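Entries read sequence, tokenised fold; example below:

***
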Amino acid sequence: MPGLHESLPDHHLALVLGGGGAAGNAWEIGVIAGLAEAGLDLTKAADLVIGTSAGATTAAQVRSGTPAGELLASVLSRPARPPVTGAAGPDQEPPPSLPMATVFERMRAIGAAATSAADLQRAMGAFGLESDAVLEPGAAQRRAIVAARLPRPEWPDRPMIVVALDARTGELAAFDRDSGVDLVDAVTASTALPGLVPTVSINGGRYIDGGVRSADNADLACGYANVMVLSPLGGRSGTPQEQAAGQFEGLRRSPDWGTDLPSQVEALRRQGSRVAVITPNADARAAMGSNQMDPATRIPAARAGFAQGKAEAARLTFR
């Protein structure tokens, strides 16, 4: 579409893909396919892709070399719960789990008690390590599930960052092709939400979901002239009004910490980046539902994302 590429001088673009469960991943794929149909193909235009949690899966899909339309078709044609070799199937026991209500309550209690971003990250890491006593037997099944979602198991040649956290220290882990970490392990770590799945063992360390630090981690795009953020959670802060039943991203994040999306976008703009943010519109929010981890939300979320992507392309600007 005329004008879109004119808004991307020097094609110096970082694409930030935030977390948001199964629905968030599908919505991001839909938006990317809609933008591509309208003339902005982010699978080719992005110089860097940054993925967090479900967005890490999206990042690996976007960087796989698969055309955006094919990625969307895969979401729309995939059964809600595909069989996975090595994962729980009809003749296998499901992986061990903790009651979701208990996990959500614990997460929110940790968020309410945290006095800093570092405090929150350490406490969530400790919760993940504690939960391993129950969840660790399901680690191999979990890795197999993640691997089945990726079009290819190798790191792409073009720059990509997968965000996780060190469970023992709470510190950021930004994995890339030079980290000496398998792509599948990196994505498995980035999607390892404490209490729901086991922490991930990588080179002697234990890692948890990068969304604990920030749902989007847009600040990692620092230095790029243009930044596009697809945020399934819309930069929500985790206030009680936003913590719908079954919604697992209910962690409180103070704007004073600088890890919420508005703060990160403001910081990028102060540093000279032109930033565009796309969040789910009303139709997409309805399609994604109150439990974004539910695989049944994927097809409606992808369709809503595709329609939104085409609409966004017509008015997309960086400012």
